Amino acid sequence: MDFPRPIWLYSFLLILTLPNLILCHDRCNNQAGSNSCTSQHSESCNANKNDLTTDEMFKRGHMKPFGSHRPPDFIVEELPYMISPQDFYMNYVAKHKPVVFKGAVKYWPAYTKWTDEYLNATYGNETFNMETRDDDKWNIPPSMKLHEFLSQYTLANRYLVDEVLPDMRKDVILPLCLRCEEMSSYFFVSYFWMSTGGTSSSIHIDTDENLLCIIHGHKAVLMVSPVYSTFLYSDESRVLGVSDIDPKAVDLEKYPDVMKIRYHSAMVEEGDIVYIPQMWWHQVISRQVLRQQAVALWWKSKPTFKEHGRQASLLQLEGLHDKGKYSFGNILAQYESWVQNVSDTAPMLECKDQQKFMSDYQFETDREENAPQTLGDGGHLEEEFGLKFDEVGGTNKRPCNFDYNNEKNPCQHPSCLEDDTDTRCIRYTLDYCMHYDDRGCVVTLPHMMNKLASAEYNEIQQMHTEFQAN
Length: 470
Ligand SMILES: *[C@@H]1O[C@H](CO)[C@@H](O)[C@H](O)[C@H]1NC(C)=O
Ligand SMILES: *[C@@H]1O[C@H](CO)[C@@H](O)[C@H](O)[C@H]1NC(C)=O
Ligand SMILES: *[C@@H]1O[C@H](CO)[C@@H](O)[C@H](O)[C@H]1NC(C)=O
Description:
By secondary structure, this protein is an alpha+beta fold. It is 27% helix and 16% strand. It has 14 helices and 13 strands. The protein is elongated. The termini are far apart. The model is unreliable at 1-49, 308-325 and 374-397 (pLDDT under 50). The structure holds 2-acetamido-2-deoxy-beta-D-glucopyranose (NAG) (3 copies). One 2-acetamido-2-deoxy-beta-D-glucopyranose binds at residues 41, 310, 312, 334, 337-338, 341.
């Protein structure tokens, strides 16, 4: 045997430990909150009840779409809100835990702007790269101009996938969960996808973290932890990182190990974002024929984290081609196991850009004597009405919040001009506000009435009003 000893030992250990690791991975993830499985390697993690038999899985899955062999063991968590970069990093990225953010894309200008007509009129002459609908890596169609693509994409067997043009980026809002210099400064690439659906990707990995943002259409995303890499025959594929298994009809006679795979399933609808962890196998399917648009944002995980916590040397990439010595699948599994091991010690992101002091902001009370005054709804009087300050109401008095053009507004009323805490002024304002749908009432009236004693308020209600409707 001419294997260098450490490698031999390494492979041997992996063979021994991998099955345990896989079962633990599943049970532990599946039992969030339960205390029966405290460590990835505890006994209780290995118990695997109510499982399907191999025969049952074969019947369900042979020559059927990938994932038919068993129901998903994990439905990807869906959050109805966006989260901070710190929370995203600590709870999902550092743990390689997929997640869906519902509706997060609906605020993007792209969501409403990117019609075929708009894209044609704006970027029609730009050239984009194409792929085939069934992700045939061997027969990639030539790139073409967008207007050509748009005139035929409903018919032809191709879809568009290329970098988001610099000009198009102004229509994309960087999701909050990435807005941290420790994340976004590592941006690597962004992809724009467009098709009419009926597409199915291969089962593949990307070496970057990925937020797949669905602008139009919807997709099913199946994800498989790298601990199952060898069950996807990762070492036998023609291109490393792209499984040769046909995900539309999985041949379980040829690839029986697929039945050992547990997978995560996410249904990602229009406006949603799904996080696909780095190195995770995934398949993206848009079954229905429906206009599909997506943007994928890829970034590199924080390198300091990758160096954090362990002495163990990571991937030994030099030997990848020699499958006898080095198994790509085992290296991926080892990598994922390492990520899971150190995830608890991942350092908190600082996101210094977000750590502004109160003193970095301006407050209304900071206004200087001659600073421009604002109306109640925040607009600048000068900008909105072209008024100079001392033209307001013909006096030098601060303008009030009520409709300036309404001569009945309380600001013009004598009792209010004298003292706007005067009970006559309050009564006048009450009547005015019963009569006019004036935003000033919403802004000012509560202030005027604040801290009135109820006796005083009763008095105001009883008193003679100086307000006359017409
Ligand atoms: C594309 O090029 C053609 C011919 O040069 C021109 O007429 C058309 O306006 C261009 N379209 C866009 C969107 O720039
Ligand atoms: C795109 O715009 C060109 C004019 O620039 C027009 O001739 C063509 O029909 C348009 N294509 C589509 C698919 O709308
Ligand atoms: C993960 O932790 C377990 C238990 O501490 C250890 O046996 C295993 O070797 C670690 N795996 C890696 C890849 O560091």
